[in-house]
């Protein structure tokens, strides 16, 4: 079965849009939704209201903390409250055979506390607040300390990393950078650098070696952009990387047999030549 999910970028002032986003997610066919952090600005009343609204979701959801949620500079004495309301913020989960990793904003050079528990061989999707590799955007942030570049060393150990999702920079981007597929959601409400705010959130379908992503307007009626389901991979155990087309197996087998036969014939010829050279004539 295909895995489908929605990703929501930095909301900031989430209360003005949360009901529409929750309604859109409930009308969708996704397996879960991920909120990528910067939910508001350290306001405890707002956080509790948001949690109450999210309780109306009929889908599984994950929520991360961003720098506006967890920074002592931004939140002061309220820094621990967000985690108490929305805990846990850093988790490892399993959905339909896919390994789900959520990593909230954190200034650290060592992400092993989280990734030591990650199965390095399993099909994995990582969701974090700050980009893990520098994106190609028109309005980059200069606060690189809020990026998660230090996480890349842990990601490089994953043998089947499908994609990393992030927010933080308020501008959408997708690409493969330094060997990692990274998708960045722009801010759901706010804008920056004269970029207009959007009403769009990410939608992904993944199955076997099929990966599709687009962005949908949450003010519209939900329509699956990638309808239909795809067959399971090896019994439904998630993404299996690039697969071998069964049609070419006989061809590969024939080539292998011919190659082995040639190797044996060459070895026999060399053996005969050696024997002739050793004859005392």
Sheet of most strands: 6 strands, mixed
Low-pLDDT windows of residues: 242-249, 275-281
Alpha-carbon distance between the two ends? 74 Å
Cross-sheet strand order for the largest sheet: 4-5-6-7-9-8
**Gross morphology:** globular
Helix % is: 25-40%
How many β-strand runs? 11
Q: Classify the beta-strand content into a percent band.
A: 15-25%
Helix-and-strand structural type: alpha/beta
As an assembly, this protein is: single chain
Radius of gyration: 25 Å
Helix count from the secondary structure assignment: 8
Average pLDDT over all residues: 80
- The topology string of helices and strands comes to EHEHEHHHEEHEHEEEEEH
Give a brief description.
With 281 residues, this protein is α/β, with parallel strands linked by helices. 26% of the residues lie in helices and 22% in strands.
Give an overview in words:
This protein is of the alpha/beta class and about 280 residues long. Helix content is about 25%, strand content about 20%. The longest helix has 29 residues, at about 250-275.
